[in-house]
Design a protein that fits this description.
The chain is α+β, with helices and mostly antiparallel strands. Helix content is 29%, strand content 19%. The protein has a two-stranded antiparallel sheet with strand order 1-2. The longest helix is centred in the last third of the chain and has 13 residues.
Amino acid sequence: MPCEIAWTLKTNCESCHKGESAAGSLDLFSWKSQTGGDGFVHLDDEGAQIDRKVTFARIKERLETTKPAKRMPKNREM
């Protein structure tokens, strides 16, 4: 992962999205091999891996939204 991206994730996302108890079951610090390429570990309610395209689309949506309840990172600007 390029240094700029790693720094941005560590600074803005690590406190909530790292490890087995990651918020939204999205661990931005673990990779998983998937069909179509590697992606972040992102699990659905039943513990199954969510497709990487869906994960990246959801991340993009959360970063771009103007709705405070959905915006990431929570309660601050990146």
